[in-house]
Amino acid sequence: MNRLMIFLDAIRDHLDSHQLPPVATVDVNAWSSPITVQLDVDGLPEVARALVVWTQTLEDVSARLWRLVDGKWVHISVTGRTPCGIPVQVYGVVRFEPSTFPDLPAGAKQDMPVYVLRGWSSPEGVAA
Questions:
Q1: Distance (Å, rounded) from C-alpha 96 to C-alpha 7?
Q2: DSSP 85
Q3: Which terminal CB of the chain, N or C, has fewer other CB atoms within 10 Å?
Q4: What does the alpha-carbon distance between residue 4 and residue 39 come to, in Å, rounded to a whole number?
Q5: Phi/psi at 33 (nearest 5 deg)?
Q6: pLDDT in tens, 33-91
Q7: Is residue 79 a contact partner of residue 62, using CB atoms and an 8 Å limit?
Q8: Reading across the β-sheet that carries 73-81, which strands appear in turn?
């Protein structure tokens, strides 16, 4: 079996095994970063909640922010491994708000603690 089929089987099994939030796209390739999942949710609380759900299904989880070069949007992502060891990156996109992301210049990438997602997952936890 080739590598691509292994990664396809791994993400299909993972999606079948868990009740996960809606997904817009799944990108699977046989080289680096084999599986990337884009969430199909809008708004910071919704993206944060969806990412928290994913963190509960992955191992060795880390989180990251990336403010796009245009400065208007922020990718919030978690990276981890499925129980069978396949690397997965899951991300959602939210509108940039200076009060929420005060130290994130346009084009910057920044690691963040995963627990911050829990604070953002409720509307009252969004303001910095």
A1: 33
A2: S
A3: N
A4: 22
A5: 40, 65
A6: 789 999 999 999 999 999 999 999 999 999 999 999 999 999 999 999 998 889 999 99
A7: yes
A8: 23-28, 35-39, 87-95, 73-81, 59-67, 109-112
